[in-house]
Write a structure and sequence with these properties.
26% of the residues lie in helices and 33% in strands. The chain is of the alpha+beta class.
């Protein structure tokens, strides 16, 4: 029995070593870019390609992300979002991080339980809202832009988020096509232990408001990180809603 346990322990350690070697061998070192006007010019061209002006004028958005489990209705103009997952629904002020939480459509009165759902909703929204359209966040407060040289000699746009959200310090290198529309990005983020993981940005779709968003993503060439149920509009009726869902939290 001791002999079996000994060999099991050795195999376990070898497995950990193998994973470590794999991560080390596939991880890319984060590139150091050149800051300055050139990077800002390229970033502006990228945002023009997705029609940032139309995005800014889009009042409402809806989408589903994370294996079809997180559902959003976002009143972007008034900084409110409805987040639905499983039996839970949260109506959240995205600026004050206050709101109301429900389970099975019943208001959660317990403050600790309610706050837990509010915190979860905020975390989901930060991540999943970023995947909806990170292009337009290249000039957000706390960002730093730089130009890096890609493997094929082209210029890539590196955007580093030094503050904001739930994972400050993450960096992304955008790879653009001849029209400055993103084709993919490479990520250096805390949540992924391997640097330089690539995700495609495909199936660019024009919303009814004129803004463009990418619907389909393949991470590392295999993992599907696509969005669904994506829609934009400027009235509740565009989404088949008759009542403002955020009246419950004072909109």
């Amino acid at each position: 029995m001791k002999r079996i346990l000994k060999w099991a322990g050795i195999l376990f350690l070898l497995g950990i070593l193998g994973v470590g070697i794999f991560l080390y061998s596939t991880s890319e070192r984060e590139p150091i870019g050149n800051n300055g006007k050139e990077a800002d010019v390229l970033a502006n061209k990228m945002m023009e390609a997705v029609n940032k002006e139309a995005w800014d004028n889009t009042k409402y958005l809806q989408w589903t992300f994370f294996r079809g489990e997180h559902h959003y209705f976002w009143d972007k103009a008034n900084d409110m979002v409805e987040v639905v997952w499983g039996k839970n629904k949260v109506l959240l002020h995205t600026k004050t991080l206050t709101g109301k939480a429900y389970t099975n459509d019943e208001l959660i009165e317990d403050k600790e339980a309610s706050q837990k759902l509010l915190d979860d909703a905020w975390s989901y929204f930060c991540n999943d809202g970023f995947w909806l359209n990170p292009v337009v966040k290249a000039f957000d407060s706390g960002t730093e832009r730089s130009i890096v040289t890609l493997d094929d000699g082209r210029e890539g746009l590196k955007v580093t988020y030094k503050g904001g959200g739930v994972t400050p310090g993450d960096s992304y290198v955008w790879v653009l096509d001849e029209n400055n529309l993103p084709q993919e990005w490479k990520m250096w983020v805390k949540i992924i232990p391997v640097g330089g993981v690539s995700t495609t940005w495909e199936n660019w779709t024009k919303l009814s408001t004129g803004a463009l968003v990418a619907i389909d993503h393949k991470m590392g060439g295999t993992i599907d990180a696509s969005l669904s149920n994506v829609k934009g509009g400027n009235s509740l009726s565009d989404f088949g809603r008759e009542e403002d869902p955020f009246l419950a939290i004072g909109n």
